[in-house]
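Morning run. Coffee first, then this:
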Amino acid sequence: MPRRPELKSNFARAVVPVAAGIAFFAVLALALWGVAALISRNSDQANDVLAGRTFQPGSVKTYAAIVERDGPIIFPDLLGTDGDKTVVLDHTGDDPMRGWSIYLAHPADRPISCKVVQVRGTRTFTDCEGRSIDVTQLALPPLGIAPAVSVDGILSLDLVADTGVSS
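And here it is:
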């Protein structure tokens, strides 16, 4: 059986394992980058492979109770395109299967840069100019972005706007 080479100097015994470890992690990083590039097909925009079309917060009963107790729910930067598109989820009525609405977290009559802050435990918001506005005065999202309720009572938010429509 052939004899394995031995590192004789202290310098070689210290540097060779570290260099081998660095080389291993560099090859691993390149392989992972290659897989990610292959999966994304080098697209500049996220697609259904990388990011889903929907966000499923959970049970309509749970979220209806939260909205009734604390007011509309704010999901920060849920859309994540064209700036900070924070989504506000609202529910009205007694039936948790119906009455869901989505708004953007800025007033309908102001630009997206005019963010709102919720008055704790209410349906009221304060905008960038200090105005007090109701949730229904918030901007509507682009067409196609809407809540949906499944037959088994799971709330999901469709996050992809119809093509050719902008906010």
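The mean pLDDT is 85. Good start to the day.
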